[in-house]
Amino acid sequence: MIYTQTEIDGVWVIEPNVFTDDRGYFMEAFKKEEFEKNIGEINFIQDNESKSCFGVLRGLHYQKGEFSQAKLVRVIKGKVLDVAVDLRQSSPTFGKYVSVELSEDNKRMFFIPRGFAHGFLVLSEEAIFTYKVDNSYAPQAEATIKYNDKDINIEWPIAEEQLVMSVKDRQAVALKDAETYQ
Ligand SMILES: Cc1cn([C@H]2C[C@H](O)[C@@H](COP(=O)(O)OP(=O)(O)O[C@H]3O[C@@H](C)C(=O)[C@@H](O)[C@H]3O)O2)c(=O)[nH]c1=O
Fold first, then answer.
1. What gap in Å lies between CA 112 and CA 86, rounded to an integer?
2. Domain 44-177 has CATH 2.60.120.10
3. pLDDT tens for each residue of 10-31
4. Which residue positions does the secretion signal occupy (predicted)?
5. 61 an active-site residue?
6. Which among 22, 51, 80, 172 could disulfide-bond with 146, CB atoms 3.0 to 4.6 Å apart, if both were Cys?
């Protein structure tokens, strides 16, 4: 696997070795020892999966304080634009984002450490998204920042009218009003 640090400290793109033959392909999707050698200690405790149709935007989500989750995300079917926003107050890139296209074709993975908000937009007819997290789901600590927050200014490649979002995500708060990480 190739581990590449992005322009935001702690956020990584990981490209697996894909072995293709007459039957299809094989790849290692996560290898703890290698991950820890390249990025650092991790203890993933839960795997999540969601399916979404074209134009679905989920985000920008995070869990507050001690409930923060690191996430290792990838796409099994379809294509998404995945986005991580730095919410670490002491970080020189606070409020900045990094985005990457993840698809069943490029098989890229994206590692988002604790202290970030995360979201993705589905660019294919359908997408199956899967991710590991290193901290328990804590609904009481959930928070959502507006996908179109002016200060973050994410370039989403789909027109606003085409977006499909949850009520929770439509009612998200601005970054300036959000509880961030000390
Ligand atoms: C995230 C989560 C949700 N749920 C439940 C709550 C709810 O009834 C249903 C759907 O939840 P949501 O609408 O929050 O699902 P979704 O919008 O897909 O939320 C996810 O979005 C992406 C961008 C992330 O980064 C994730 O951490 C998570 O916040 O699933 C769990 O039971 N466990 C979980 O870990």
1. 9
2. yes
3. 999 999 999 999 999 999 999 9
4. none
5. yes
6. 172
Give the model confidence (pLDDT) of 37-47 as tens digits.
999 999 999 99
Which residues is 158 bridged to in the sheet? none
Which residue among 58, 69, 97, 145 has the greatest number of ligand 1 atoms within 8 angstroms of its CB, and so is best to mutate? 58
Query: Does residue 131 have an active-site annotation?
Result: yes
Tokens 């400290």 belong to: 9
Q: Report residues whose beta carbon is within 6 angstroms of any ligand 1 atom.
A: 48, 50, 58-59, 61, 118-120, 137, 166
* Domain assignments of the chain as residue spans, ordered by start: 44-177
**90-143: per-residue pLDDT in tens?**
999 999 999 999 999 999 999 999 999 999 999 999 999 999 999 999 999 999
* pLDDT at res. 81: 98
- Burial level of 12, CB count in 10 A (0-12/13-18/19+)? buried
